[in-house]
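Support request, please re-run this one:
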Amino acid sequence: MKPFPVATALTIAGSDSGGGAGIQADLRTFSFHRVHGTSAVTAITAQNTRGVTRVDLLPPESVTAQVDAVASDMRVDAVKVGMLAQRALIEAVADQLARVSLGPIVVDPVMVSRAGSRLIDDAAVEALRARMLPLAAILTPNRHEAKLLAGMDIETLEDMREAARRIHALGSRVVLVKGGGMPGALRGTDVWFDGTRMETLSVAPVDTPNTHGTGCTLSAAIAARLALGTPPLEAVRLAKEYVTSALRYPLAVGHGNGPIGHFFPLIQD
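Re-run finished. Output below.
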């Protein structure tokens, strides 16, 4: 039987034992988009819908070996970079991505949670800013990450736009400032800036506490669309639509904030 031709995407991110975020969410998202998913695990977390109880970081050499194994054998049409957590790992992955010829890179700068909890130290933030951002075809900071990168408070739509301008100056080709943590009517509103074009992308917010994995899923969906050859702005629009639909069909698992329904067409009423 003739093999089925398929685009391939690589996620470089942490593992979520509860299955709601990280590489588990990324691989489900790739599969939904009919993209073959590959992975390089950066950290092993012990977590569930209630929270994270332990994080074990893998050595940089282990992570780069995983990337080499994939890249030496397969064409990688797009890359999603998620949790890197420490300076040495950020620098090792950045060196490798700059050296190896892969598809466009979507960077989800996992620095601050949507609730505002800091996840990495100052040295890692600076490494991310100096080494990883210039490699990003699309950077997807949430409100708190954008605040940290731009060095300003973000309360209004114009603040989001100014933050996008400041972050773009750090080297990413496109900056998508996400509004999931914004107040009031701005929840669900993202700002796109590519150095020339400023776009406001809005969807109706979904009222659910089960939002675990939305940031991972959005960046993975953008990467999947880029792997399929979709132009960047359209890739972001389609990814937002996918996440919004998945939010409408969260999974009834666990006793905390549950995951979104990545395969929502299979569980629709």
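The first helix runs from residue 22 to 32. The radius of gyration is 17 Å.
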